[in-house]
Amino acid sequence: MLLFEIKKLLKKTSSYAGLVVAVFILAGLLYGIFLNGQLSGYSTDKIRGRDSIALNTEIANKYAGSLSDDKIESIITQSVENNAKNTKSGFFDIFSWYVSKEFILNNSSYDRELENYKKMEVSTLKM
Q: Is 39 in a helix, a strand, or coil?
């Protein structure tokens, strides 16, 4: 029954056009989310090739070893401090703020970053 209905739909040319449009829309969504977004790091990372491999190896060696509460707090704290120093980007990451607020007892550096962004003009922020 289902196979019969699918065959009946495919006899019409408009169904092929609809399928092509759906594929283009899906490809556009996937490109924006996965290939060109922050998930892939493309929009934020300007390091490519061998430099990227060397940097990733350096970071992996820096945090090698068993995972403990102190190490997790250290990693998150360093990340928050790096973000707080980078005020030129004009980007405030609310997710990182919530993570630091939940998991770090003394997250004053991220609170400082929040204060810096409150003082900035809205027109200078990058969205």
A: coil
Could you write out the DSSP letters of every residue in 70-112? HHHHHHHHHHHHHHHH-GGG----HHHHHHHHHH-S--HHHHH
Residue 68 to residue 63: CA distance in whole angstroms: 11
Residue 106's pLDDT band (boundaries 50, 70, 90)? low
Please give the single-letter amino acid code of residue 122.
Answer: V
Q: 111 in a domain, yes or no? A: yes
Residue 2 tokens read as 């289902």
Q: How many domains does the chain have?
A: 1
Express each pLDDT in 13-67 by its tens digit. Answer: 888 888 899 999 998 888 777 665 554 455 555 667 788 788 888 888 888 888 8
Q: Which residue carries 């493309």 as its tokens?
A: 42
**79: domain range?**
67-127
pLDDT of res. 22: 94
**Residue 97: enclosing H or E segment and its boundaries?**
helix 94-103
